[in-house]
Amino acid sequence: MPDPFEPLVGVWELGGGFWIENGFVDFVECRVRLATWQEHDGTGAAGFGVVSGAY
Q1: Tens of each residue's pLDDT in the chain, 55 residues
Q2: Total Cβ atoms within 10 A of residue 3
Q3: What are phi and psi of 19, to 5 degrees?
Q4: How far apart are CA 38 and CA 46, in angstroms?
Q5: How far is it, in rounded angstroms, from Cα 37 to Cα 4?
Q6: What is the DSSP string of 1-55?
Q7: C-alpha to C-alpha distance for 33 and 23, rounded to whole angstroms
């Protein structure tokens, strides 16, 4: 099983950051809607919830 923190460590190692605002996690390049893993697995009606170019 992959390490669940690996993507977050990768963001920090590359000098990136993030913040949580209005129900989204904002990674500067894209925003990801806060939801459960079931909602993010791509099979539900909600889809993945990534918003690119939100600005």
Answers
A1: 678 788 778 878 887 778 888 888 887 778 888 888 777 776 655 444 555 554 4
A2: 8
A3: -150, 160
A4: 10
A5: 12
A6: ---TTHHHHHHHHTT---EEETTEEE-SSEEEE---HHHHSSSSTT---EEES--
A7: 6
Q: Which residue has the tokens 């000098």?
A: 15
With a CB cutoff of 8 Å and minimum separation 6, the contacts of 8 are none
**Beta bridge mates, 51:** 31
Instruction: Name 50's bridge partners.
Output: 32
Q: 13 φ, ψ to 5°?
A: -65, -30
